[in-house]
Design goal:
mainly alpha; 12 helices; about 0% strand; about 210 residues; Endonuclease III, domain 1; Endonuclease Iii, domain 2; 2 domains
């Protein structure tokens, strides 16, 4: 287990015995950062995967990259691709618009794609959510799994909410603010805590 994970688990177990009990039951943390490819490719993939099951999304994403020789296109390539061509690989009209909109925003410098690593979490979220089709949840997934940020709690995530309800035996499904309040003590390792919450409902993000 990476040293950072070991430190995170020790902290989470100390500050929250309830979560600590689940951590002990669930076993080692296998959270990893996706380092291959580009930031642009990771964002494009997240748009393709929105609201689809993993298998269907993977098929469409494969066809999408197949348009460019099996790789993520450069933004300048994507904006020049005919809308009908993108629709032809299984993308909805809206997702095709979102992908080309993302590419256009990167090209005009509205999304500082090469500077995201050096930006604070809130700055990354603000920059990405300016793009149509990229919401707070998508930006948080980018922070967690692309940039490897350790202290992200996606309070809007239904699976995270469901796990909190189950773990803390809540009577009603918790709203985002309740999740944030319960999870405040997990800082600065809320990303690892979130990973264990996803484990509880067996639905980690794709």
């Amino acid at each position: 287990m990476p040293p950072r994970h070991a430190k995170a688990l020790a902290h989470l177990t100390a500050v929250d015995p309830v979560l600590g009990g689940w951590i002990a039951q669930a076993g080692p943390c296998a959270l990893t950062r996706e380092r291959s490819g580009t930031h642009f490719g990771a964002l494009a993939r997240s748009i393709v995967y929105q609201q689809l099951n993993g298998k269907a999304a993977a098929t469409i994403h494969g066809r999408f990259e197949g348009l460019y020789g099996g790789r993520t296109p450069e933004p300048k390539e994507l904006v020049k691709t005919a809308h009908e061509t993108l629709r032809g690989v299984g993308l909805s009209a809206r997702k095709a618009e979102y992908l080309q909109g993302l590419a256009a925003e990167v090209l005009r410098g509205a999304v500082p794609i090469e500077l995201l690593d050096a930006m604070a979490d809130a700055e990354v979220i603000a920059a990405l959510t300016r793009v149509r089709g990229v919401g707070e949840w998508t930006a948080q997934m980018f922070l967690m799994f692309r940039l490897g940020r350790p202290d992200v709690l996606p309070t809007l995530d239904f699976a995270v909410q469901s796990a909190v309800k189950r773990l803390y035996k809540l009577r009603i499904h918790p709203k985002p603010q309740r999740v944030a309040t319960i999870g405040a003590k997990w800082a600065p390792y809320r990303t690892v805590a979130s990973w264990y919450l996803w484990r509880m409902v067996d639905s980690p993000p794709q």
